Task: inverse folding
Protein backbone atom coordinates (compact mmCIF):
# COMPACT_ATOMS: atom_id res chain seq x y z
CA UNK A 1 0.00 0.00 0.00
CA UNK A 2 1.35 3.43 -0.90
CA UNK A 3 1.84 6.09 1.71
CA UNK A 4 -0.88 8.19 0.12
CA UNK A 5 -3.47 5.55 0.79
CA UNK A 6 -2.61 4.99 4.45
CA UNK A 7 -5.29 6.06 6.90
CA UNK A 8 -4.72 9.37 8.68
CA UNK A 9 -3.62 9.11 12.32
CA UNK A 10 -6.34 9.83 14.88
CA UNK A 11 -6.59 13.46 15.87
CA UNK A 12 -6.37 14.41 19.56
CA UNK A 13 -9.55 15.50 21.24
CA UNK A 14 -9.93 19.29 21.44
CA UNK A 15 -8.87 20.92 24.70
CA UNK A 16 -11.61 22.89 26.41
CA UNK A 17 -10.73 26.57 26.24
CA UNK A 18 -8.00 26.18 23.61
CA UNK A 19 -8.20 28.34 20.45
CA UNK A 20 -10.36 26.60 17.87
CA UNK A 21 -8.12 27.57 14.94
CA UNK A 22 -4.85 26.60 16.64
CA UNK A 23 -3.48 30.07 15.87
CA UNK A 24 -1.79 30.41 19.26
CA UNK A 25 1.09 28.17 20.33
CA UNK A 26 0.37 25.63 23.00
CA UNK A 27 1.59 26.51 26.51
CA UNK A 28 4.56 24.74 28.05
CA UNK A 29 4.10 21.73 30.33
CA UNK A 30 6.05 21.40 33.56
CA UNK A 31 5.52 17.65 33.31
CA UNK A 32 7.70 17.65 30.18
CA UNK A 33 10.65 19.22 32.02
CA UNK A 34 13.35 17.31 33.90
CA UNK A 35 16.37 19.65 33.78
CA UNK A 36 19.91 18.71 34.75
CA UNK A 37 21.50 21.27 37.08
CA UNK A 38 25.33 21.15 37.20
CA UNK A 39 27.12 21.77 40.48
CA UNK A 40 28.61 25.10 39.36
CA UNK A 41 25.11 26.43 38.75
CA UNK A 42 24.11 25.41 42.28
CA UNK A 43 26.95 27.59 43.63
CA UNK A 44 26.32 30.51 41.27
CA UNK A 45 22.62 30.55 42.13
CA UNK A 46 23.20 30.87 45.87
CA UNK A 47 21.91 34.44 45.86
CA UNK A 48 18.59 35.89 47.04
CA UNK A 49 15.79 34.59 44.78
CA UNK A 50 14.22 36.91 42.18
CA UNK A 51 11.38 37.92 44.50
CA UNK A 52 13.94 39.31 46.93
CA UNK A 53 16.50 40.80 44.53
CA UNK A 54 15.19 44.24 45.43
CA UNK A 55 14.85 43.53 49.16
CA UNK A 56 16.53 46.14 51.31
CA UNK A 57 16.15 47.19 54.93
CA UNK A 58 14.45 50.40 53.86
CA UNK A 59 11.88 48.47 51.78
CA UNK A 60 10.90 46.29 54.74
CA UNK A 61 7.72 47.77 56.22
CA UNK A 62 7.58 47.04 59.96
CA UNK A 63 4.18 46.51 61.53
CA UNK A 64 3.74 49.52 63.87
CA UNK A 65 2.05 47.21 66.37
CA UNK A 66 5.11 44.95 66.49
CA UNK A 67 8.17 46.93 67.72
CA UNK A 68 10.39 43.83 67.43
CA UNK A 69 10.26 44.19 63.63
CA UNK A 70 11.82 47.67 63.60
CA UNK A 71 14.35 46.54 66.22
CA UNK A 72 15.36 43.61 63.99
CA UNK A 73 16.04 45.98 61.09
CA UNK A 74 18.35 48.08 63.24
CA UNK A 75 20.21 45.11 64.71
CA UNK A 76 20.69 43.45 61.32
CA UNK A 77 21.93 46.70 59.78
CA UNK A 78 24.57 46.88 62.50
CA UNK A 79 25.47 43.22 61.98
CA UNK A 80 25.92 43.75 58.22
CA UNK A 81 28.22 46.71 58.81
CA UNK A 82 30.36 44.62 61.19
CA UNK A 83 31.21 42.04 58.51
CA UNK A 84 34.54 42.72 56.87
CA UNK A 85 34.21 43.28 53.12
CA UNK A 86 36.06 41.10 50.64
CA UNK A 87 38.13 38.06 51.57
CA UNK A 88 41.43 38.44 53.37
CA UNK A 89 43.07 41.62 54.61
CA UNK A 90 43.40 43.14 51.18
CA UNK A 91 39.87 42.35 50.06
CA UNK A 92 41.04 39.57 47.77
CA UNK A 93 39.98 35.94 47.94
CA UNK A 94 43.52 34.63 47.50
CA UNK A 95 45.75 34.02 50.49
CA UNK A 96 49.56 33.77 50.41
CA UNK A 97 50.78 30.18 50.59
CA UNK A 98 52.70 30.61 53.85
CA UNK A 99 50.49 33.30 55.33
CA UNK A 100 49.02 32.57 58.72
CA UNK A 101 45.28 31.96 58.58
CA UNK A 102 43.53 34.93 60.21
CA UNK A 103 41.79 34.15 63.47
CA UNK A 104 38.02 34.09 63.39
CA UNK A 105 36.54 37.18 65.07
CA UNK A 106 35.46 36.70 68.68
CA UNK A 107 31.86 36.93 69.79
CA UNK A 108 28.69 35.90 67.96
CA UNK A 109 29.29 35.37 64.25
CA UNK A 110 25.71 34.59 63.48
CA UNK A 111 22.15 35.81 63.85
CA UNK A 112 19.03 33.69 63.98
CA UNK A 113 15.75 35.31 62.87
CA UNK A 114 13.05 33.80 65.04
CA UNK A 115 9.44 34.28 63.99
CA UNK A 116 6.36 32.76 62.42
CA UNK A 117 5.77 32.46 58.70
CA UNK A 118 4.89 35.63 56.86
CA UNK A 119 6.57 38.14 59.23
CA UNK A 120 9.24 38.97 56.65
CA UNK A 121 12.18 36.83 57.80
CA UNK A 122 13.28 36.04 54.24
CA UNK A 123 13.02 39.72 53.27
CA UNK A 124 15.26 40.62 56.20
CA UNK A 125 17.69 37.79 55.43
CA UNK A 126 17.96 38.98 51.81
CA UNK A 127 18.38 42.57 52.98
CA UNK A 128 21.28 41.45 55.17
CA UNK A 129 22.89 39.76 52.15
CA UNK A 130 22.56 42.93 50.06
CA UNK A 131 23.77 45.23 52.87
CA UNK A 132 26.90 43.21 53.71
CA UNK A 133 29.96 45.02 52.24
CA UNK A 134 31.41 42.11 50.27
CA UNK A 135 31.30 41.25 46.56
CA UNK A 136 28.42 38.95 45.48
CA UNK A 137 30.76 36.02 44.87
CA UNK A 138 31.82 36.19 48.53
CA UNK A 139 28.26 35.98 49.89
CA UNK A 140 25.92 32.98 49.68
CA UNK A 141 22.17 32.75 50.19
CA UNK A 142 20.10 29.59 50.02
CA UNK A 143 17.58 27.39 51.73
CA UNK A 144 18.62 24.51 53.94
CA UNK A 145 17.59 22.10 51.17
CA UNK A 146 19.73 23.96 48.63
CA UNK A 147 22.70 23.80 51.01
CA UNK A 148 22.37 20.04 51.51
CA UNK A 149 22.04 19.65 47.73
CA UNK A 150 25.29 21.58 47.34
CA UNK A 151 27.06 19.22 49.76
CA UNK A 152 25.71 16.29 47.77
CA UNK A 153 26.94 17.77 44.49
CA UNK A 154 30.39 18.99 45.61
CA UNK A 155 31.17 16.70 48.53
CA UNK A 156 31.70 17.84 52.12
CA UNK A 157 35.33 18.93 51.87
CA UNK A 158 34.89 20.81 48.59
CA UNK A 159 31.85 22.60 50.02
CA UNK A 160 33.97 23.74 52.97
CA UNK A 161 36.69 24.98 50.61
CA UNK A 162 34.16 26.76 48.39
CA UNK A 163 32.09 28.44 51.10
CA UNK A 164 35.07 28.95 53.41
CA UNK A 165 36.22 31.83 51.19
CA UNK A 166 32.89 33.60 51.73
CA UNK A 167 32.20 36.38 54.18
CA UNK A 168 28.52 35.59 54.77
CA UNK A 169 26.27 32.54 54.48
CA UNK A 170 22.52 33.04 54.80
CA UNK A 171 20.38 29.91 55.33
CA UNK A 172 16.62 30.22 54.95
CA UNK A 173 14.32 27.63 56.53
CA UNK A 174 16.87 25.57 58.47
CA UNK A 175 15.36 22.07 58.63
CA UNK A 176 15.15 21.14 62.29
CA UNK A 177 12.91 18.16 61.54
CA UNK A 178 15.64 16.12 59.81
CA UNK A 179 18.19 15.02 62.46
CA UNK A 180 20.68 13.57 59.96
CA UNK A 181 20.84 16.66 57.77
CA UNK A 182 20.86 18.90 60.84
CA UNK A 183 24.03 17.21 62.12
CA UNK A 184 25.60 17.38 58.64
CA UNK A 185 24.93 21.09 58.21
CA UNK A 186 25.84 21.91 61.81
CA UNK A 187 29.23 20.28 61.27
CA UNK A 188 29.65 22.23 58.04
CA UNK A 189 28.77 25.50 59.75
CA UNK A 190 31.30 24.80 62.50
CA UNK A 191 34.04 24.51 59.88
CA UNK A 192 32.88 27.72 58.19
CA UNK A 193 32.82 29.65 61.47
CA UNK A 194 36.43 28.55 62.03
CA UNK A 195 37.21 30.12 58.64
CA UNK A 196 35.66 33.42 59.71
CA UNK A 197 32.38 33.12 57.79
CA UNK A 198 29.48 35.08 59.31
CA UNK A 199 26.18 33.20 59.48
CA UNK A 200 22.50 34.11 59.40
CA UNK A 201 19.57 31.71 59.52
CA UNK A 202 15.85 31.20 59.86
CA UNK A 203 14.29 27.84 60.63
CA UNK A 204 11.15 25.77 60.78
CA UNK A 205 9.80 24.21 63.97
CA UNK A 206 10.34 20.77 65.47
CA UNK A 207 7.31 18.44 65.67
CA UNK A 208 4.98 18.56 68.63
CA UNK A 209 5.74 22.09 69.82
CA UNK A 210 3.13 24.39 71.32
CA UNK A 211 2.14 27.79 69.99
CA UNK A 212 1.37 26.58 66.44
CA UNK A 213 5.04 26.45 65.55
CA UNK A 214 5.54 30.19 65.69
CA UNK A 215 8.90 30.42 67.42
CA UNK A 216 11.82 28.00 67.38
CA UNK A 217 14.90 29.68 68.85
CA UNK A 218 15.29 27.19 71.72
CA UNK A 219 14.93 24.26 69.31
CA UNK A 220 17.36 25.79 66.84
CA UNK A 221 20.07 26.57 69.37
CA UNK A 222 19.79 23.10 70.90
CA UNK A 223 19.89 21.25 67.58
CA UNK A 224 23.01 23.04 66.30
CA UNK A 225 24.69 22.07 69.60
CA UNK A 226 28.21 23.55 69.80
CA UNK A 227 27.33 26.34 67.38
CA UNK A 228 24.75 27.94 69.64
CA UNK A 229 27.28 30.39 71.10
CA UNK A 230 27.82 31.81 67.62
CA UNK A 231 24.18 32.82 67.13
CA UNK A 232 22.26 35.75 68.53
CA UNK A 233 18.49 35.13 68.32
CA UNK A 234 16.35 38.01 67.04
CA UNK A 235 12.68 37.43 67.76
CA UNK A 236 10.32 38.95 65.19
CA UNK A 237 6.68 39.05 66.24
CA UNK A 238 3.78 39.66 63.91
CA UNK A 239 1.06 38.17 61.75
CA UNK A 240 1.49 36.86 58.22
CA UNK A 241 1.99 40.06 56.17
CA UNK A 242 0.42 38.40 53.11
CA UNK A 243 -2.94 38.59 54.89
CA UNK A 244 -2.67 42.11 56.34
CA UNK A 245 -5.60 43.99 54.91
CA UNK A 246 -5.78 41.74 51.85
CA UNK A 247 -8.93 40.06 50.52
CA UNK A 248 -9.53 36.36 50.90
CA UNK A 249 -7.92 34.07 48.35
CA UNK A 250 -9.89 33.97 45.10
CA UNK A 251 -11.99 30.91 44.42
CA UNK A 252 -10.60 28.46 41.83
CA UNK A 253 -11.76 28.91 38.24
CA UNK A 254 -13.25 26.32 35.94
CA UNK A 255 -11.11 24.17 33.64
CA UNK A 256 -12.08 26.11 30.53
CA UNK A 257 -11.05 29.47 32.00
CA UNK A 258 -7.69 28.12 33.19
CA UNK A 259 -6.96 26.48 29.83
CA UNK A 260 -8.04 29.49 27.79
CA UNK A 261 -5.90 31.79 29.95
CA UNK A 262 -2.88 29.49 29.58
CA UNK A 263 -3.14 29.60 25.78
CA UNK A 264 -3.38 33.37 25.58
CA UNK A 265 -0.68 34.13 28.21
CA UNK A 266 2.89 34.27 26.82
CA UNK A 267 5.22 32.00 28.76
CA UNK A 268 2.45 30.16 30.59
CA UNK A 269 2.52 26.49 31.48
CA UNK A 270 -0.53 24.22 31.59
CA UNK A 271 -0.66 20.96 33.53
CA UNK A 272 -3.11 18.58 35.10
CA UNK A 273 -2.43 18.77 38.85
CA UNK A 274 -2.36 15.01 39.60
CA UNK A 275 0.05 14.50 36.69
CA UNK A 276 2.28 17.28 37.99
CA UNK A 277 2.41 15.70 41.44
CA UNK A 278 3.44 12.41 39.86
CA UNK A 279 6.12 14.18 37.80
CA UNK A 280 7.58 15.87 40.89
CA UNK A 281 8.33 12.42 42.32
CA UNK A 282 10.63 11.79 39.35
CA UNK A 283 12.59 15.07 39.53
CA UNK A 284 14.99 15.91 42.37
CA UNK A 285 13.74 18.94 44.37
CA UNK A 286 17.03 20.74 43.65
CA UNK A 287 15.85 20.96 40.03
CA UNK A 288 12.41 22.46 40.68
CA UNK A 289 13.77 25.98 40.25
CA UNK A 290 15.33 25.17 36.89
CA UNK A 291 12.07 23.47 35.90
CA UNK A 292 10.42 26.90 36.18
CA UNK A 293 12.97 28.69 33.97
CA UNK A 294 11.26 31.12 31.56
CA UNK A 295 7.79 30.28 32.94
CA UNK A 296 5.69 33.43 33.37
CA UNK A 297 2.52 31.82 34.78
CA UNK A 298 1.55 28.36 36.02
CA UNK A 299 -1.93 27.10 35.12
CA UNK A 300 -3.19 23.94 36.82
CA UNK A 301 -6.43 22.05 36.26
CA UNK A 302 -8.11 19.59 38.62
CA UNK A 303 -6.33 20.61 41.83
CA UNK A 304 -6.99 17.93 44.45
CA UNK A 305 -6.02 17.21 48.03
CA UNK A 306 -2.45 15.93 48.26
CA UNK A 307 -2.57 12.16 48.87
CA UNK A 308 0.43 11.63 51.17
CA UNK A 309 3.17 13.40 53.09
CA UNK A 310 6.02 12.69 50.66
CA UNK A 311 4.01 14.26 47.84
CA UNK A 312 3.06 17.16 50.10
CA UNK A 313 6.69 17.95 50.95
CA UNK A 314 7.62 17.97 47.27
CA UNK A 315 4.76 20.37 46.58
CA UNK A 316 6.04 22.64 49.35
CA UNK A 317 9.41 22.92 47.58
CA UNK A 318 7.72 23.73 44.27
CA UNK A 319 5.56 26.36 45.98
CA UNK A 320 8.70 27.97 47.42
CA UNK A 321 10.38 28.10 44.00
CA UNK A 322 7.27 29.59 42.38
CA UNK A 323 6.96 32.17 45.15
CA UNK A 324 10.64 33.09 44.93
CA UNK A 325 10.18 33.79 41.22
CA UNK A 326 6.85 35.62 41.64
CA UNK A 327 5.11 33.28 39.18
CA UNK A 328 1.31 33.62 39.40
CA UNK A 329 -0.65 30.37 39.76
CA UNK A 330 -4.10 29.95 38.20
CA UNK A 331 -6.10 26.86 39.14
CA UNK A 332 -9.32 24.92 38.86
CA UNK A 333 -10.53 22.32 41.33
CA UNK A 334 -10.03 22.64 45.08
CA UNK A 335 -8.89 25.80 46.85
CA UNK A 336 -5.37 25.93 48.26
CA UNK A 337 -6.56 25.71 51.86
CA UNK A 338 -7.89 22.24 51.00
CA UNK A 339 -4.56 20.86 49.75
CA UNK A 340 -3.42 19.30 53.03
CA UNK A 341 -5.37 17.06 55.38
CA UNK A 342 -6.13 18.00 58.98
CA UNK A 343 -3.67 15.32 60.07
CA UNK A 344 -0.90 16.94 58.02
CA UNK A 345 -1.72 20.39 59.40
CA UNK A 346 -1.43 19.04 62.94
CA UNK A 347 1.78 17.11 62.33
CA UNK A 348 5.48 17.86 62.49
CA UNK A 349 5.61 19.53 59.08
CA UNK A 350 2.62 21.79 59.67
CA UNK A 351 4.65 24.99 59.45
CA UNK A 352 5.82 24.04 55.96
CA UNK A 353 2.27 23.33 54.86
CA UNK A 354 0.91 26.59 56.25
CA UNK A 355 3.73 28.45 54.52
CA UNK A 356 2.89 26.73 51.23
CA UNK A 357 -0.80 27.62 51.57
CA UNK A 358 0.11 31.22 52.37
CA UNK A 359 2.49 31.55 49.42
CA UNK A 360 0.25 29.80 46.90
CA UNK A 361 -2.64 31.99 48.01
CA UNK A 362 -0.55 35.09 47.33
CA UNK A 363 0.31 33.76 43.85
CA UNK A 364 -3.35 32.97 43.20
CA UNK A 365 -4.20 36.61 43.89
CA UNK A 366 -1.54 37.66 41.39
CA UNK A 367 -3.08 35.33 38.79
CA UNK A 368 -6.40 37.18 38.90
CA UNK A 369 -5.04 39.84 36.55
CA UNK A 370 -4.36 37.17 33.92
CA UNK A 371 -8.03 36.30 33.74
CA UNK A 372 -9.10 39.93 33.82
CA UNK A 373 -6.91 40.69 30.81
Result:
Amino acid sequence: MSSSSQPSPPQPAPIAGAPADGSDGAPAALTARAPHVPADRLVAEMVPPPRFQGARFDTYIPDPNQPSQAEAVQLLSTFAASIEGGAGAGGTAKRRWFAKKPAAPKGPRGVYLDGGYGVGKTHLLASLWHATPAPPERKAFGTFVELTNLVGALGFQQTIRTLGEHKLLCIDEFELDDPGDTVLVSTLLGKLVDSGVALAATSNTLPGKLGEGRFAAVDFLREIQGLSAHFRPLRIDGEDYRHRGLPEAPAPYDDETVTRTAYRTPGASLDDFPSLLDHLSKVHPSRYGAMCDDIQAVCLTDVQAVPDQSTALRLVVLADRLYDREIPVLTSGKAFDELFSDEMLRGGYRKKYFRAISRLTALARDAGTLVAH
